From TrEMBL:
Keywords: Membrane, Transmembrane, Transmembrane helix. The chain crosses the membrane at residues 24-43, 50-68, 74-99, 120-139, 159-180, 187-210, 230-250, 262-281, 338-357, 369-391. It comes from the Bacteria. This is O-antigen polymerase. NCBIfam families: glyco_rpt_poly (TIGR04370).
C-alpha cells in the first residue's frame, strides 16, 4: 500500500507541476526515484510494484530534458493515463501483498532433464533456427558484420519464427533454473547456447527477456542482489544493447535527432531515452485524437499467430517519428477502449502479478518461479509495448504449464519437509 499511496501523492503533485512548468516534474521524479532506491522496505526490486513503476518514473524524468530536437511537452490526457495506470496497478498489488505470505522455504525440487533430453531439445531449437535461416537465405548477424543489408523484421517464417522465439526463451530459462538447482554445468552450457542463437539472429528482445527473466529466477532461488551490483549489471546490459542496436539500425544520435548540447551522452543512454520517451510522445498523439477509442479489438491481434490476423489499414499514424514505433502497453489498450478499458486491464494484470508473486514466496516451485519471471518481464517492459498481449513472450506461460504439469505435488511434498531459511543479500 505504501507505493500506491506514494504514487497517488506523486501523481497529483506532478499534474499540478505540469500546469505550472515541466521542470518541476523532473524534480518530483528525482525525489521519488531517490526515495524508492534508498528506502529498503520499499526498494524490493523483485516486487511487481517496483517492476512496473520504476521504468515509468525514469520516463517521466526524461520528459524534463530536451535531448532530442523532437522533444516537446506531454499533454494532460497522456499524463493522466500514465499516472492513473500507476495508481491502479500499485494499489491492487499493494492490497494483494498486504496478506502475509507463508515463510520462505528452502527449495528441494530435484526435477532434471537427462543429457539425452537436454541435447534433443537443443537440437530441435537449432533445427527450427536453421529452417528459418534457410528460408530467409541469410544469418542476420553475419550479414551485418559483412556490411550487407539484414532485414531482421522480415526474417524467418512469421508464425514458426514467433513460436521459436517463445519456445527458445522458455527452454533457455528452464535450463538456467535447472543449472541453479542441480549445479550441473551441462545446463549452463545449453543456456549459453540459447543466448548465442539469439545473438546470431540479432534478436535483442529475446536476449533482453531471457536475461531479465534469468535474473528474477536467480534472485528467487539463490539470493537478492545488492543495488550497486544491479546498477553495474544494468549499465553493462545497456552498453551491449546500445552497441547491438547501432549495428542493426545505425547511429542512434542521428536517428533520434539529438541536440548539440546532449551529443556527449553515451549511445546506451540515448537508446534508453529513444525507447522510452518517444513512446510517450506517440501516446500523447493518440490521446489527443477525438476519434479515439475505436472499439475494434485491434489490441488483441498480437495474441494470434500472424497467419490468423486480419490485415488492418490505419486511417492515420500516431507516431511522432516513423523510426520509433514504440508505444507502451497503454497505447493499444487506450486505442481500443479508452481510459476505462486501460485501467481494467491494469487492475487484472496487477491482480495476477501480485498473486503469482505471493505464490513464489509461499511455494517457490519451478512452475511459480518461471511464470513470475515472465510476468515480471512484462511489467518491467510495459513502457515499451504490451508484452501481456504479445504472443512470442506470453506464449511462454502455457509452455511452462505444459512442462511442469504434474510436478506441483512433488514440489509440495518436498516443501513439506524443507527447513525455513532467511533470504540473504549478496
Amino acid at each position: 500500500m505504501t507505493l500506491g499511496l506514494l504514487t497517488l501523492i506523486w501523481g497529483s503533485a506532478a499534474l499540478v507541476a505540469y500546469i505550472y512548468g515541466e521542470n518541476y516534474l523532473v524534480l518530483i521524479s528525482l525525489g521519488i526515484l531517490a526515495g524508492l532506491l534508498l528506502l529498503p522496505w520499499i526498494a524490493d526490486y523483485l516486487s511487481p510494484q517496483m517492476a512496473f513503476s520504476m521504468p515509468w518514473i525514469v520516463i517521466l524524468l526524461f520528459s524534463g530534458f530536451s535531448i532530442s530536437e523532437i522533444h516537446r511537452p506531454i499533454g494532460f490526457l497522456a499524463h493522466a493515463a500514465i499516472f492513473s495506470s500507476l495508481v491502479v496497478y500499485l494499489l491492487v498489488t499493494g492490497i494483494v501483498g498486504a496478506v502475509e505470505p507463508i515463510k520462505i522455504k528452502k527449495i528441494q525440487f530435484d526435477q532434471e532433464f537427462s543429457s539425452v533430453k537436454s541435447g534433443t531439445i537443443l537440437f530441435v531449437l537449432l533445427g527450427i533456427a536453421a529452417f528459418n535461416v534457410i528460408y530467409s537465405g541469410y544469418i542476420p548477424l553475419v550479414n551485418i558484420l559483412m556490411g550487407a543489408s539484414a532485414d531482421y523484421l522480415s526474417f524467418g517464417v512469421k508464425s514458426i519464427y514467433g513460436f521459436f522465439n517463445a519456445f527458445a526463451n522458455m527452454v533457455g530459462l528452464t535450463f538456467f533454473y535447472l543449472y541453479l538447482t542441480s549445479k550441473k554445468r551441462r545446463y549452463l552450457f545449453f543456456y549459453v547456447a540459447v543466448i548465442i542463437i539469439f545473438l546470431f539472429l540479432v534478436s535483442r528482445q529475446n536476449i533482453l527477456s531471457l536475461l531479465v527473466e534469468s535474473f528474477v529466477v536467480y534472485s528467487l532461488l539463490r539470493a537478492r542482489v545488492k543495488m550497486r551490483k544491479i546498477i553495474l549489471m544494468f549499465t553493462i546490459l545497456m552498453v551491449c544493447f546500445g552497441a547491438l542496436g547501432s549495428l542493426r539500425s545505425g547511429d542512434i544520435k542521428i536517428l533520434a535527432k539529438v541536440t548539440p548540447q546532449y551529443m556527449w551522452l553515451p549511445d546506451s543512454v540515448v537508446w534508453g531515452y529513444s525507447y522510452s520517451f518517444f513512446n510517450v510522445l506517440n501516446l500523447d498523439n493518440l490521446t489527443n485524437d477525438p476519434a479515439v477509442p475505436y472499439h475494434d479489438a485491434q489490441s488483441l491481434d498480437p495474441l494470434m499467430p500472424s497467419f490468423l490476423r486480419t490485415k488492418r489499414e490505419e486511417d492515420r499514424s500516431f507516431l511522432e517519428d516513423d523510426k520509433f514505433t514504440v508505444s507502451s502497453f497503454i497505447f493499444p489498450i487506450y486505442k481500443d477502449g479508452g481510459l476505462p478499458f486501460t485501467l481494467l486491464l491494469v487492475a487484472i494484470v496487477a491482480l495476477v502479478n501480485g498473486l503469482v508473486y505471493r505464490r513464489c514466496i509461499s511455494n517457490p516451485s519451478m512452475r511459480n518461479i518461471l511464470i513470475y519471471a515472465v510476468l515480471y518481464f512484462c511489467a518491467l517492459l510495459s513502457f515499451f509495448t504490451n508484452f501481456w498481449f504479445y504472443l512470442p513472450v506470453i506464449a511462454q506461460l502455457p509452455m511452462i504449464l505444459a512442462l511442469t504439469w504434474g510436478q506441483n505435488k512433488s514440489q509440495e511434498e518436498a516443501d513439506a519437509g524443507a527447513v525455513p531459511v532467511d533470504r540473504v543479500i549478496i
